[in-house]
Amino acid sequence: MIVCHCKVVSDREIHAALAGGARSVGAVCRSTGAAQDCGSCIFTVKALVCQHRQQEQAILEVDGAAS
Ligand code: FES
Q1: Which domains does the chain have, with CATH numbers?
Q2: Of all atoms in ligand 1, which is nearest to the CA of residue 9?
Q3: 18, 20, 34, 43: most buried by Cβ count inside 10 Å?
Q4: 3-state helix, strand, coil in the chain (%, to 5)
Q5: pTM
């Protein structure tokens, strides 16, 4: 799915940036080029970053419960 139509950035590229160490909306935008033009995609980028953080937190909680 294309997240940023101005810079043609997909959700896969956003996920790749997060997997590669981007830890903020700004870092993801700098890494991928998303939200660098009209800015209308910023809320979708933010939602993907939040979703990624929630998944990381859930994994940490499961790991913590298992140990
Ligand atoms: S849609 Fe992303 S900057 Fe315009």
Answers
A1: 2-65 (1.10.10.1100)
A2: 2
A3: 34
A4: 65, 5, 30
A5: 0.89
